[in-house]
Each structure stands twice: as C-alpha cells, then as structure tokens.
Amino acid sequence: MTFMSATELSPPYRSAVTKSRILWGMPVMLLWGYIAVALYMTGDGIEVAFLAKYVTQIGFTPKQAGMLFTIYGATAAISSWLSGVLAEVYGARRIMAIGTIWWALCHVAFLGLGLGQHSFPMMMLFYGLRGFAYPLFFYAFFFWIVQKTPDHRLASAIGWVWSMFTLGYGIIASFLPSWTIPAFGFMPTLWMSLAWVLAGGALACLTIREDPSEAKPLAAKVSVKEQLIEISRSLTLIVENRDIALALITRVICNLSLFGFPVIMPLFYTSPEVGFTMPQWLRIYGAFFLVQPVTNVVWGLIGDRIGWLRQMRWFGFVGCAMASLAFYFIPHLMPGNMFTAIIGALFLALTLNAFVPMGAIFPAIAPDHKGAAVSVQNLGGGLSNFLGPALATLFVTGYGTQGVVYIYAALYLLAAVITCFIRLQQPKGASAMEVYSSAKASAVHEEMEDLGIQTQKS
C-alpha cells in the first residue's frame, strides 16, 4: 500500500487539507486547542487521586471503589480504540463536542444520582459511561494535529499535546484538590471539575477555525460496512503478526501501576498505619507527574542511543517492578515522612517514563500497516487503563495492598522477559518520537486513502 499526504486526496472523498503555520513546534491554528486540552484534562483528572478514598468514607468498600475505576477503564479502552477513526469519519470538531457534552451529562448524573444519593448502581452506570468521553475529546484533537501539521514537524506538535495532557491531568489535577478539599470539601471539588471540562470543550470548539470544505464529515460518503472494516483492521494485525501481539501484551502491562495505584494507594497512604493526610497524599501524587515533561525528553534521547527495547526491558519493566515495591514499602517503613515518600514517587515516575519509545515500537514492527499498528498501540493503552484497576479490585480484599503491589511487580518482570522475544529492527538515525509521529501521520493518511478507495469502489 502506498501512503499519500492528506492534501493528495481529492473530492468526492476528502477535500485538500490546509496545513497550519508552525510556531515553536506547535500548529498555530490549533493553539487554543492545546490550551483546551490542558483545561479539559484537568477536569477529567481531578478526582483520580482521591475518589477511592471518598467512596470508602461514605460507606462503600475498597473493592467497590476499585470496581468504579475498572468499569471506567473498560469504557475508556473501547473509546480510545475507536476515537481516531470516529474523528476521521465524523469530523474532529463534532467528536470533541460529543466528548465534552457526554462528559458533562454523565458527570452531573454521577454526582447527583450516584454519589449524592449513595447509590452504587448509579455510580457504576454513570462513571462507566463517562469513561467514553475523554478519549473522544483528546484523540479527536490528536487527529486534528496530525491532519493540520506538516509531517516533518509532527514530533514537536505531538510532544506539545502530551505536555498539555500531563499539565492538566497530572500536575494541575493533582495539586489543585490538595487545596480545594481542605477549603471546600470533596463534593464541591468534584463539581468544580465540571467547569474545567466545559471551559476546555467550549474553547476548542469555538476558537478553532477550519475550512467549510474540510469540516464535512466523511460518514456521508462511506457506508456503515466500510466504517466498521476500517475500525476492525487492528484486530486482524494482532492475529497475523506475532511480534505485534507480544508488543500488545507489554503495552498493557507497562502502565498497570499508573492506573491501578489510584485505586489502592490513596487508602494506604492516608491510613493510620502510614499517617499522611489527603492533601499530603495529593502532593506526593502530584510530584509523580511534575517531573514527566523533563524525563520524557531524557528517556527519548537515551532510548534512541541504547535501543528502545533494551531501555524498556531494564529501565522500564525491571525498573517499574522495583519502583512499585518501593512506592509501597518506603511509606510502610518510614510512615509520615514526606521527603522519602516523594523520592519513591519520583523513582516510580522515572521508571514509568522509560516507556517513551513504546509508541514507536508498533509501527516499527509493522511498517507496512502503520495505521493498524498505531490502533493496536492505542488499544493496549486502553486495556491497561482497565486491567490496572481490575487487578486491584480483584485482589485487594484477599491479599491487601501489598499483595496487589507484588502482582504488579511480577507482571512487570514477565513483560521484561517477553521483550526478549519481540523482533524489532530499530530504524537508524530516527528518534522514537519521529517514528511515532510519522506513524500517526501515516495512520491518518492510510485511513483517508482506504475509505476513499472503498467509496470509489462501492
């Protein structure tokens, strides 16, 4: 299959796409969209580090708190897998608007009918449904970036969007509740997140301009069958390519602690045994994200020099096994010590960020099917969002926090072994971010080409 640029697709399939002027590595016409991502993801992430604690405080069990995160992870996984193609078929602006409205409606119902009424079925229903929302918003904007940015500038443009994601979801959303919860309480803090998401959604949808000829969704030009074929291509690649299947397993495992620890660690760190207050825990958790913008760059440079798989095997998987244990045992052995607890959080952040090359590995394994490979990578990230909380939910009651941490550590070591069997020819002279951004561009171009060809044949 030959890849063409977005501008080579002609009517009636897709009008030529206007590329944006680039300033400091960022497409200028999407500037407000980057700010919108930080706002939206702040609202989406505000409750992550304290929701499990609050749910248990109002009378539910730790297992029930874990179930909330598990159902959320399941729906987010599905949405992450579908969102890129949905943005291409139905238009990025429309999908972002749907992601904003869907989030707001589900969040209001979650707070009003679920938490407000202490109704666990309603909490499960609406928090689970809310999980569909943020990937629609974020990955639709991601598609917009790939569509509007010249291919040779994609690495920096994608780097900017992940920086905005980390700024909102990780840094602001972690530190902000450490001040608002003591001042206003848990529920007002949860209601506050609604304003952040609505502000981000409105900013993106109202300020980003696009040519009317580009705004017309592709769904009007392709059949439902063709849309489903496009969505399902990644599943075929998993079955047909052994190395992609192995890489998918490692992709699922790599972020288990990132998504699983918010289920159990707020309860552990604020327990009488460890002795931290909720604001202290939130600042420890915030420190974890504070270093990511720097460590992402550093690990990218190191991985390009020593090899992507080697870095992920030793510093990522083996490192995460050690760091996950440290994140538990440091406060257990030195309760109430903020300095050592933050050191443990930074150690975990350092090792988790060693997975920076993961996005480049999939398209490098399957260079002839980059679009499907990127979809598999997105699916793995979503499944990690599900499996991390699911494991915590399943085992925390019987084995406690320590048992869950041991399970995560064992899986990290298993993934380190699996990397030894992945066959990868790392491209010479290309960084992981360049390979990943090129693959994202190829994925969008491939989807547009395939849908156009199918329309022509139908």
UniProtKB/TrEMBL annotation:
CDD domains documented for this protein: MFS_CsbX
Highest rank taxon of the organism: Bacteria
Keyword Transmembrane in record: yes
Keywords: Cell membrane, Membrane, Transmembrane, Transmembrane helix
Compartment(s) of residence: Cell membrane
Positions of the Major facilitator superfamily (MFS) profile domain: 29-427
Protein known as: MFS transporter
Species of the source: Gluconobacter cerinus
